Amino acid sequence: MFKTYAEYYNDAKLLYPSSNPKKDVYEFTHEITLPGQKSEIIENITDDFYKLVDKVAGIYSERLSDNDRCYWPPGPDGLKKEDDIVRMCKDIIDVPDIENIVSIIAPQIEKNLYGSYMQVQNIYVYRSPVTKVQPRMSWLWHYDNHPYEYMKCMIYLTDVGENDGPLEMMVHSDTGLGAKHKSYRTSWNNWRAAPNNSRFTEKQIEDLEEQGYEPKKVCGPKGTIIVFNENVVHRANIAKENDRDVINFMIKPSTEKLVPYLNKEYTGTFQNKDMFTDPSHRGLIFK
Ligand SMILES: [Fe+2]
């Protein structure tokens, strides 16, 4: 049988040179690094990083403005795709500098968060265009119901204010930690859909508020980096003033050092399945 995710992660730590991460993966909820700042995980970001972000933001912005280069999620009847909540970029890893961006951030996540090598399982680039449609899918409060070792790393490609579709999380006002929900998919021996499709009801949000959590929108300029555990209660917001573009990559520990980080053999995107009961799985499965 497969290893569990916890067993596999343990192996991955043993195979990583002098593993001594600053964070405990199971305690970690999220970390935000604004341009010009350093944080515990992302401790070393140079101007080169922001130059690369500018460069790829321009390329992806063109692609995201071209209907032929985008995908749309299934939508309500009668909704024109141009008016929808999100548009997703079809081709991502053929842009050469995206590997350079990931290879600045990933070694810091490996060293400071995982204490192991990591795999970029999937990478997504998408735009939240200004629209009047109603929230659905990830625009409702939810957790991702993935194994606890999975994280996401989001990089803003546009300046994101309150009304520009920021990511939002439930964060404790004293501890600063996100509200992490139990996952129903932890390993092959515990793998099921979450109740209510892992959406949070208004009552559940009120309960969190009673425990001291409050909704916190992550605003920041182009180049803001957000690393977060996928089981933190979060949602996307509808952009009201300006379109928001992001890179978002989904990561998990790896026993192997993968070079390059992004490779069409093992890094998928919207068309690909995003998780597997076998933590050592490599290769893409089309949905
Ligand atoms: Fe999500």
Series of H and E elements: HEHEEHEEEEEHEEEE
Radius of gyration: 18 Å
CATH superfamily: q2cbj1_9rhob like domain
CATH class: Mainly Beta
The low-confidence parts are: none
The CATH architecture can be named as: Sandwich
Output mean pLDDT.
95
Please count the helical segments.
Answer: 4
Bound molecules: fe (ii) ion
Overall geometry:
globular
- Alpha-beta classification: alpha+beta
Q: In whole angstroms, how far apart are the ends? A: 24 Å
Description:
The chain has a single domain, classed as Jelly Rolls (Sandwich), CATH 2.60.120.620. 20% of the residues lie in helices and 22% in strands. The protein has 4 helices and 12 strands, in the order αβαββαβββββαββββ. The strands form 3 sheets. Strands 1-10-5-12-4-3-2 form a 7-stranded antiparallel β-sheet. The chain has a 3-stranded antiparallel β-sheet with strand order 9-6-11. The longest helix has 19 residues, at 96-114.
Layout of helices and strands, plus pairs?
Blueprint: H1 5-14, E1 30-33, H2 47-64, E2 70-71, E3 87-89, H3 96-114, E4 117-128, E5 151-156, E6 167-172, E7 185-187, E8 190-191, H4 202-210, E9 213-218, E10 225-229, E11 234-235, E12 244-254
Antiparallel strand pairs: 1-10, 2-3, 3-4, 4-12, 5-10, 5-12, 6-9, 6-11, 7-8
The structure holds fe (ii) ion (FE2).
